[in-house]
Amino acid sequence: MTDSPKPTRKRDGRLREDLIDAGVALLRDRGADGMSLRECAAIAGVSHASPGYHFGNLKGLKTAIAARAFRLFGDFMLEFLAKAERAPKAQILAISEGYLAFAEAHKELFLFMFSGQDLDQTDPDLSAMSARAYQILRDTCAPFVKPDSHPETVEILVWSLVHGYAQLMLTGKIRKASPGVKIPAYKFLLDHLNLSLQDDPSSSS
Amino acid sequence: MTDSPKPTRKRDGRLREDLIDAGVALLRDRGADGMSLRECAAIAGVSHASPGYHFGNLKGLKTAIAARAFRLFGDFMLEFLAKAERAPKAQILAISEGYLAFAEAHKELFLFMFSGQDLDQTDPDLSAMSARAYQILRDTCAPFVKPDSHPETVEILVWSLVHGYAQLMLTGKIRKASPGVKIPAYKFLLDHLNLSLQDDPSSSS
DNA sequence: CTCCATAACTTGACACTGTCAAGATACGCA
DNA sequence: TGCGTATCTTGACAGTGTCAAGTTATGGAG
């Protein structure tokens, strides 16, 4: 009998995930400031101090939410990578599309991740998922890194463009001046980058 | 008819600015979540409900802080523009340097502005300062807009790169993989953009 | 000069929050 | 069976945003 009229201990390890679900739901429809430990507890149907037991404090809950967000974020990029052609430029486009698809499908999570929230950066879950996402970018950019330069060069170039594009799209800072104009596709912008393969002689800079 | 029928008190209109100062100070050394109306009141030496009178609510105070941040932000870009040469590419580099200088000198304000905070977008101060900053970008990008394309193309390209670069620099997401490596100068990245003047024949897409 | 309307600020209250301490409960295991 | 421990609850406290009502001083009308 898992359920009993006196609900104690019934959830085992499931409650932690339920609380994160509740936090994500609150984040979605009330914003990061509308998220509270007590309301997460209420949604999950437990007492007000239960989240504190599992996550330590509010920072812990936010960190857990961010960790889940980074996992999903990486999943999006890997999914688009798998469906794309193996050509290096196609792969760059693929992670970018995964990046933008995630930002559009999970706007609140995306903004939350990169909004300088007060998170516990020492949390193993968060740092693992964050490093995993960055590694996807690094691997995809590798073919474009020239032997005499640092990998960061290409990585910053690609990541900055797609991240800035996503951020400005979501916060609407771009459309303001002329609301009717369509945002040009990201691919169009990507074509303006001087990316060249490591052994491609067309690079002249 | 001295000024207007409004200012009438011992602190005159000065308290409002003092409260914004207090909010900025709290933002600087405790983060956006550590900012509270009551503590701003305490710093300014007034009662706990006084900020509510001037700003309506916490959202109002945050909006006022963001408006001041956008004004300072625009000032930085204009200052760098004035010191630079008039050549279009030099001007692009100038606003980028102003952008990055602001982000570095006022890290908390920069992150606060672009962190999807719950602000009152209908506030005339905020929207005016925000539009002013965007107009600086638009004007500087204008020489690179081809007659058959939308201005947004170039604007997104430049803004995304510099914004993404600044954001990733400040949140430290870039250095993680190799802490010892120096971040390449932004100018180096800018050189990888295929920017060409409207009448420049070297544009081949 | 008096008087007073009103802007600027204070006082007080309420519901809500995070966080901690201490208690209760049930499961795993001996 | 009985106990230890992880899990969850209860209760309390300080701090918060926000509203209503009270207070004060200032500029202007008479």
TrEMBL record, chains A, B:
Keyword annotations: DNA-binding, Transcription, Transcription regulation
Matching SUPFAM superfamilies: Homeodomain-like, Tetracyclin repressor-like, C-terminal domain
MF-aspect GO terms: DNA-binding transcription factor activity; transcription cis-regulatory region binding
Protein name (database record): Transcriptional regulator, TetR family
Source species, domain of life: Bacteria
Organism field: Roseibium suaedae
Domain HTH tetR-type: 13-73
Source species taxonomy: Bacteria, Pseudomonadati, Pseudomonadota, Alphaproteobacteria, Hyphomicrobiales
DNA-binding region, residues: 36-55
Name of a matching Pfam family: TetR_C_33
